[in-house]
Design goal:
single chain; 175 residues; alpha+beta; Alpha-Beta Plaits; 6 helices; 5 strands; 38% helix; 21% strand; disordered C terminus
Amino acid sequence: MDYQRLAVHRTIVAVDVEGFGDRQRTNRNQVVVRDGLYLAMQEAFRQSRIPWTDSNYEDRGDGMFLLVGSEVPKSLFVESLPSALVAALGMHNDSHPDSERIRLRMALHAGEVNYDGHGATAASINLTFRLLESAPVRRRWPTLRVCWRSLPRHGSSKKWYSTARQIPPLITLPM
């Protein structure tokens, strides 16, 4: 039996830089934003006591997604990571011009993930990205630096929801 093809439980973190492709941003601005995103994510993980080196992450050009093993408590993702990320983004934004500042959306989820020779795939990953890109999130919170919402309370999301429901569903900071 090929155990690499069996699903494993992962916490899923997806982030997207708002306005990354804005015409006001030059290629150099985009490189600075990407560097800032990676530094902010690594610092937020460190501050939250979530091991960055044990995470699988994939670059998405204007964002990234990370898969973290089930041995890391989900409560760290909902209790610590959002505020640590806000602080790290604030440090970046305070030292950069408008064209290099980062406004970020973040979606959190957990579920079964399959790996293959090309990376990871799962309905739970698709759902995380649908949430991140959903019109209601974009319409309702257009000026957020960081936003997270717990996902539906059915199926494998029950355990995640029992953790996430204890935390306020939204963190906002004025730009």
